[in-house]
Amino acid sequence: MPAVFLAVFFVYPAGAILWRGLFSEGFGPMSDLFASSRTRGVLWFTVWQALASTAITLVAALPAAAVVTRLRGRRRHWVRGLVTVPFVLPTVVVAGAFEGVFDRFGLEDGGFRLRHTVWAILLAHVFFNYAVVVRIVGSFWSGLDHRLEEQARVLGAGPIRTFRAVTLPRLRPAIASACTIVFLFSFTSFGVVLLLGGPRRATLETEIYRQAVTRGDLRSAAGLALVQLLAVLALIAAATRLERRRPARTGVAHSPPEPLPRSFVWANLAVMAVLLGSPIAVLVERSVSVGDGYGLDHYRALTERVPQLPATAATALGNSLVFATVATALALAVGTLAALVVVHGRSGLRHVFDLGLTLPLGTSAVTIGFGILIALDEPPLDLRTSWWIVPIAHALVGTPFVVRTMVPVLRRIDPQIREAAAVLGASPGRVRRLIDLPIAGRGMLVGAGFAFAVSLGEFGATSFLPRRPETLTAPLALYRLLSTPGELLRGQAMALAVVLMVLVALAVVAIEASRGSVRGADAVWESL
Amino acid sequence: MTRPNFFNLPKGLTARVLGAIGIVAVAALIATACGNDDGNADTPTADTPTSIGEATGDTPTSIGGTADTPTADTPTGDTPSGDTGDTPTDTEDTGDTQTGDTEDTADTSAEGTASESEPLADPAGITLLTHDSFALSDETLAAFTNETGIEVTLLQVGDAGQMISEAILTAGNPLGDVMFGVDNTFLARALNAELFEPYESPNLADVPDEFKLDAQHRVTPIDYGDVCVNYWTDALETDPPTALEDLTAPQFADQLVVQNPETSSPGLAFLLATIAGTDDWEQFWADLADNGVAVTAGWGDAYYGEFIAGGGKRPMVVSYASSPPAEVIYADPPVDAAPTEVLVDSCFRQIEFAGVLAGTDHPVEAQALIDFMLTPTFQDDVPLNMFVFPVADSATLPQVFVDHAQIAEDPLFIDPAEIEVNRDEWTDRWVEIVLG
């Protein structure tokens, strides 16, 4: 089933558009495109900014993951929910919020200029991707058996040595997973580069858009899209290799990890508050400033129709929730099955799934959007104007999250446990149901939370898909509100952004809280 | 965890369906109250042309997403098609008068023009492909359905650039029957790709010749908007600029923000304005760059980022002639005078066109929609929804536009074919000069 999903909604459309772009006008040499220094410069910048973004995000978020791992109960849910908030924020809003922060602290005047520099791009990528590392590594971490660390400490290793020699190697699969996603997000980032990087900066993604849409040069666009695809493929191949190498096998955590020094915990929460909290605070402040004072008028206005929108902003929020729910269900179904195949399937099939299902995350919105238009245009698959095409496109982006969060967790399951179950007479299906899924459940829910958040905030691919006006999504509504001048519209857009943030935080908390049922399964397994 | 999700969907759906049914019922009541003698608005629907029913209830879409469609289309759609459906041929006249009656009396002049196109006995539903900026009052397209029995389904896609690219990609198997929203800066690309079938609307008589850019009538002008430099009057320390060349003067150093013409439609229009409006546009931009012009990727981050309206520091921005009235309508707290004004000398005219997409199965219905777009019903509705100006002479501008919008009498302009040939070269040159 995952294979069919991938083939129909990704391989076929992407293949069709690349084929059309590269070969429909005859197969000529593309050397002019690749020889140009501009293209090479763009490729180089795309790769290094993505690598730098990944590295900085990892350094910034890994300590936070350690903190989140040690939080318990509700507090953990809330912190995890909050770090996911940036996912649904449109770049244009975040850019404005960051500027508001700099303005407030007078950073712009002091000769400290962030706008239109590489640093702005990197900072925004860290802001958006912080949650990826915190949640994927964090959830994996809390599932580790901490007795090894205790033993190391007893044997005289200091905390840093213990982390380096004992914890880090065991975290590697999850770190590789998280890094793959952060890299792909930064690699294909569009709005951040255009809005924060300034007009001089271009990445492969913005170049593909420029060639395909602004210039109408499908051939160059397809050439660049092919380069993008190959680069992404190479990266994923390298990363999944890292992820697979000697996974540490442990069951479920038996004892709580050693508590961290208070100063470390507070330092991390402070970083989180500044990095994530301050732009969010600016947004909230803008959403409640009415005229010369404060009030909730902008929130009330969300239920009234403005001419710029074909439906009220509240309706758009409802649409987005329905889309996100359907997309998450799709991504979960496809992703879970795929993750099982990746870990337990035949070796050839494994690699195909591993690479293939991560690929959509690293593919240009132009490729996916245009591809769907020209490929799925005839019965029985005339889906280009169907309602379903939006959640399907969202699920395409959400599935990699489910796969990447589940695979490391599934891999560390001790094969002896599965063998024991099989010896005791459990069928393969029963083993899967009673052992794999409960243990991987945590990863699955983290992935589901991401899939939901990604769908709720998705803008790029959605804008390429022809939509009925009534199926307006919240991010599209937000952009529409910000496309006519006027304080009232701007205030309403800010209110809409805040509601989106609250919704995604609530959704992530709710999804993670539904682990109750999973815990029950844990107990069943333990009594085995 | 998937289970609650699956429950959510049908629940929302039921609520929407119930809501839609309720609205249809209310609409039916209103129709009856307005003297619709047929009374029972529901029965005729059974023998109305099936295509109308299908157009709204299109199978996959109705599953959850378009649940709102009925609110806009069905109520009005059902009642009139019931009228014509009953006696398809000989009640045409009564049908017309009836729609005239139920409509706003202010719009009667509209029917005068529109009803000349013959009502179709068995009209098919059509799809209008347009960009995300398209907006109308709910009643407007409903009025069209009222008059003609033609259901219109809207399909929106990104911006005008994305829409044209997609129309070119899907040529031969078009996404819709009519496309609205190609403007003169990209018109030639659409025409060269042979996207449209020629159609000369009789209502073009109402449109000044300056808007008719295609002699073959493959596209029909619908609205226009000028891209001009806007300035925040109170924030200027000196007298406002009066000519394009003023912008390079020292007193306006570090005051202007423009958009990159490679990524922004108003950015491109302003570049074209300088090409048409200065003696040496390359020198002008070099001077502008020396004078500290700021460049953003799009309109949003210029207007709400660098420009003073969104908390930025620059008092001058490239925006639209309709921005000052918008600043009045959406002001908070309310204001009497617009805080911004436009530099009329810098205005470049963007004209938006509609056309019948080649390959449509319903050319007659598509042409009827083009006709309708030039009637006062449609034209009067354009300014306050899309913040552009109607092209028809008979259209009336809303008072807030009369009071606060300045329309350039002699706007800057370049022939679309010339734009198409030179666009890439000009923008490349611009990038070299301004971004270095």
Verbal overview:
The complex is a heterodimer of chains A (528) and B (436). The radius of gyration of chain A is 23 Å and the shape is globular. Chain A is an all-alpha fold and 528 residues long. Chain A has helices at residues 2-23, 31-35, 37-70, 73-84, 91-104, 118-142, 147-154, 159-187, 191-197, 204-214, 218-244, 262-288, 297-301, 313-344, 347-356, 365-375, 389-411, 415-423, 428-457, 460-464, 474-481, 487-513, 516-526; strands at residues 289-290, 293-294. Chain A has 23 helices and 2 strands. A two-stranded antiparallel sheet of chain A has the order 1-2. Among the domains of chain B are: 1-82, no CATH class; 225-349 and 393-435, D-Maltodextrin-Binding Protein, domain 2, CATH 3.40.190. Helix content of chain B is 44%, strand content 14%. In chain B, strands 1, 2, 3, 4, 5, 6, 7, 8, 9 and 10 form a 10-stranded mixed β-sheet that branches. In chain B, helix 1 crosses helix 5, helix 5 (74-86) runs parallel beside helix 8 (138-148) and helix 11 (265-277) crosses helix 12. Chain B is globular and about 65 Å long. Residues 1-116 of chain B have low confidence and may be disordered. The chains are: A mainly alpha (528), B alpha/beta (436).
In short:
The complex is a heterodimer of chains A (528) and B (436). Chain A is an all-alpha fold.
Task: Give a quick set of tags describing it.
heterodimer; A: 528 residues; mainly alpha; MetI-like fold; 23 helices; B: 436 residues; alpha/beta; 19 helices; globular; disordered N terminus
Task: Summarize the SSE layout with pairings.
The complex is a heterodimer of chains A (528) and B (436).
Chain A: H1 2-23, H2 31-35, H3 37-70, H4 73-84, H5 91-104, H6 118-142, H7 147-154, H8 159-187, H9 191-197, H10 204-214, H11 218-244, H12 262-288, E1 289-290, E2 293-294, H13 297-301, H14 313-344, H15 347-356, H16 365-375, H17 389-411, H18 415-423, H19 428-457, H20 460-464, H21 474-481, H22 487-513, H23 516-526
Helix pairs in contact in A: 1-11, 1-16, 3-6, 3-8, 3-12, 4-22, 5-12, 6-8, 6-9, 6-19, 7-8, 8-11, 8-17, 10-11, 12-22, 14-15, 14-17, 14-19, 14-21, 17-19, 18-19, 19-22, 19-23, 21-22
Chain B: H1 2-33, H2 42-47, H3 50-57, H4 69-72, H5 74-86, H6 92-102, H7 108-114, E1 126-130, H8 138-148, E2 152-156, H9 160-169, E3 178-183, H10 187-192, E4 196-197, E5 220-232, E6 256-259, H11 265-277, H12 281-290, E7 294-296, H13 299-306, E8 316-320, H14 323-329, E9 340-357, H15 363-373, H16 376-379, H17 382-386, E10 389-390, H18 399-404, H19 416-435
Parallel strand pairs in B: 1-2, 1-3, 6-7, 6-8
Antiparallel strand pairs in B: 3-9, 4-9, 5-8, 5-9, 5-10
